[in-house]
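Quick one before lunch.
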Amino acid sequence: TELLKIIQGIPKAELHLHLEGSFEPELMFEIAKRNKITLPYDSIESVKQAYKFNNLQEFLDIYYAGAQVLLHEQDFFDLTWAYLTKVHSQNVVHVEVFFDPQTHTDRGVSFDVVIKGIYRALEKGKSVLNISFKLIMSYLRHLSEEAAFETLEASLPYKDIIDGVGLDSSEMGNPPSKFEKVFKASAAQGYKLVAHAGEEGPSEYIWEALDILKVERIDHGNRCLTDEALVKRLVDEKIALTLCPTSNVALKVIQHMNEHPVAKMLDQGIMATIHSDDPAYFGGYMNENYYETAKALNLTLEQIQQLAINGFEASWLSESSKKKHI
Ligand code: ES4
Ligand code: ZN
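Model of the zinc ion complex:
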């Protein structure tokens, strides 16, 4: 359709993508087979049947199970390379991707294996597909702050290739404040800071991410509109929200796409951007996220373009690189 062509034609930046969430069932089966691991599914069809979620936790349980088949550097390379070739076809020209080291180190896969595979694919993507990148390691918030400190320690040999740290996994009951010390220590190592907040959790968690963790972007942040003072803060300080509309519908953060807050956020002057979160599980990469949102909310061409501009604006590209894309 016309709308999809317009979206396809706009160069885009992906700022909220979990590499483990880009693991398509076809590749999962292939890697399981060569690693001699049996998946609890007998076909790709039955995998897709299992991808029905009522909340974030139901998704996370299946997402962590899927990641179990990743064992070797080549597996992490293949995962990342498949993602990059996919988004290249969607005119994504810059990515800032998350990985969850603890999902792998807790199973005995070393930090080195994980990051070497991912980084080799990102470098290839830069040279072959001309996709620039930043890499963000996420601490799992359902685990302890002490465990996050161990991950920070393990990352230090690679701190020149890791651009920032994030905070993901089960939000309710795991407020940002739980990670105050490790975020402070991460900043002291030169890492940039982001955190998931206000996806399922309340606006207080967004305040905590800003005031206690001192993050520069909020991942999701859906729940901010109920809090006028918070909206003012986000607008005044140009704090970006990396929204993931398809994810929100899949996890029932909203009941229907036409309830998505992104249009209201733009109206109120919030630096809102659109991303894909876990596309293999939620059924939408960047273009589908833009398309579904634009269609359900009747976004204007100007709004669609603003969302894409905001993606570069909120990125960690240098000011001169941003200018080339905007
Ligand atoms: C995630 Cl959608 C979402 N929320 C929180 N943590 C996550 N990790 C991967 N996807
Ligand atoms: Zn996310």
